C-alpha cells in the first residue's frame, strides 16, 4: 500500500502521462546541480516539463493510463522524465540537443502513443526537420498535388463543354438581336 505522498505522486505522474504527447526518459545520474539547473532551464524554454521520477511510480502511472505497449524494462536506473505536451518533435529536439553537449546524461527511452520507443527511435524523431506541423503540411502537400491534378483532368471535358455551350449561346443571342 503506497503512502499518501507516493499516492499523490502517482496521481500527478498519471495525469502528466495522460496529457503528454511524449514522455522522454533520461538518465541524469552524475549531473552536477549546475548542469541539472541548466537542463531544466533549457527544457522550460522549449515548453517541456522536466522532473525526476521513481521508476516504480512511473510504471504504475503508465499502467493506470492503460499503456500496454510500454516495455517495463525501460523503468530501471535513475530516471528523469521530460514531458512534451504539444509537439513531439520539438520536445525530442530539446532533449537530444542538450544530451549531445552533455557527457554524463544519457537518453534511455520514451513513451509515445502508449508504447515505448528506443533511444535510436527518439533520436530519429528529433532529426525530423521543422516540427510536427511542418511534417503534417508536407504530407498534405504531397497528397494534395496529385489530387489537384486528377481533379483538373477529370473536370476538363465538362468545363470545356460548358465553355462551348456558352459561346454557342452567345453567338445565337448576338445573331437574334442583329435581325
UniProtKB/TrEMBL annotation:
User: Sorted alphabetically, which InterPro entries does this protein's record hold?
Assistant: Ribosomal_uL10, Ribosomal_uL10-like_sf, Ribosomal_uL10_bac_type
Tell me the protein family, please.
Answer: Belongs to the universal ribosomal protein uL10 family.
| Protein name (Swiss-Prot/TrEMBL) | Large ribosomal subunit protein uL10
Q: List keywords of the entry alphabetically.
A: Ribonucleoprotein, Ribosomal protein
Coiled coil where? none
Mind telling me which GO cellular component terms the entry cites?
ribonucleoprotein complex; ribosome
Which organism encodes this protein? Dictyobacter aurantiacus
Signal sequence bounds: none
